[in-house]
Amino acid sequence: MIRLYDTAHAEIRALGLREPGHLSMYVCGPTVYDLPHLGHGRYTLVWDVARRWFSFRGLEVRFVSNITDIDDNIIKRAQRDGLSEPEVAATYEAEWWRAMDLLGVARPSETPHATQWVGEMVDLITSFLDSDTGYVTSDGVYFDVSRVPDYGLLAGQPLESLRAGARIEASDEKRSPLDFALWKFAKEGEPSWPAPFGAGRPGWHTECVVMSLGLLGDGFDLHTGGFDLKFPHHENERAQAIAAGRDFAHHWDHSGWVMVGLEKMSKSLGNFTSLTHLLETTDARAYRLLVIRSHYRSPIDVTTATIADAERSLERLDALARRFELPALAGEVIEVASSHALGPKGRALVAKIGAMLDEDLDTPSAVAALFEAVSLTNQLADQGEDEIAWDLAVGINVLFAALGLTLLGSTDHVDEESSQLVRARDEARAAKDWARADELRGQLMALGWVVEDSASGTLIRRG
RNA sequence: GGCGGCGUGGCCGAGUGGUUAGGCAGGGGCCUGCAAAGCCCCGUACUCCGGUUCGAAUCCGGACGCCGCCUCCA
Prior knowledge:
CATH topology of the largest domain: Rossmann fold
Number of strands: 15
Number of helices: 15
Radius of gyration: 26 Å
Largest sheet: 4 strands, parallel
Number of domains: 3
Order of helices and strands: EEEHEHHHEEHEEHEHEEEHHEHHHHHHEE
CATH superfamily of the largest domain: HUPs
Strand content: 5-15%
Mean pLDDT: 92
CATH class of the largest domain: Alpha Beta
Shape: elongated
Distance between the termini: 42 Å
Structural class: alpha/beta
């Protein structure tokens, strides 16, 4: 049984399934108006790991994640850069997928785009106007939050308390400062869609509720996103679903944020750090390891030091892959436990680590246990227990792959010149001509290789 | 002001009242022609002050410090 924290109940509870064996999950995706930052990388990694783990456990996962391709920020960007809104969205959506591919985040089952669902949004807003849950002001259509009795559930605060702390300036036209825009009327030069209540564009909160219910249907299993989406975004999605008489997500969960020098990254602070830049300069697997070695609901500090630390940890894993010549798994393929034939040690490892991951996705414990298993495996191999060691190594490889982390052994292409040097060095070593052997090692290193001796002779790899 | 979270050894980071988290870095040793990789040993950490308890990093109270949400944000 898989248990997972549920924001709505503020506790870890069983992840219920609408249909046995099938998990429907919706992850709020990006608004594509700029390059992705580290925070995007964090939440996509967290939910990618979750998805991969659920799949590994045999669930058929339908993973929907949207692209918000119309929004105030896109309009601003378009005006600033002298481009059309669709051009801005297309540019940054392409950048988004490029980053996701580098991170090894598997593509969603479906990726709805907000602009393709405007008709459904207009219908929903119309129904709110009909029931007086929505009302028109001079700049748009608003949702009356007082119509939802338990508004504030996800925020963990009642409506009154939220209202008292509201920092939004009161508008004469809004019934409550907490009321949010369902629809914004188009100003001069802004993109718009026709609607009976006036041409304009949908509000962000309306986009996600329409797309999630539209694709996954009533009572879908799991709705997730970053911490800061809890309120108001998810609260407002939920409010609309309830007001519309729909059965919304049965389980909610939120991943922790990224800290940069003791502060949360955020738009208002402007302390963005580009994910694209990180991926250009480091092994993307290091960020995944950094993410999974702390709990998904804790904040993480991403610095050059913590990334470098993770990169070095990764070397230990890659060394295991080299030693046992493990195949590279994961990547675009989502691993499923049943497709791997494991020995008894491997199966025992899956059982042990599986229990950790089934309990609120405890990746830090799982990673620690996997590193312990790495030590044990090397120990066994040193003692000549090759069969058991191999059994464990395969299990480790499969489990890391289940979390989306690929262990890389020697996959480097060796050119003819280098392989001649390797052969020459093996001959020199066989003849105990150490001076010659060291000279040849120096030549290989000058060519950029890391040189290691093994039972089978000289091994070279890219450092 | 309201709600919530955190403070662990050089760094990162887990931790269910009593038994080794784990990784990185560092020191010593083994193995190795020398290296690399690997293995073994080493740090006796829990912001502070009280309390509960046979026993607390872990529970309770308080102090101090830090962070998040309450506005766009992943």
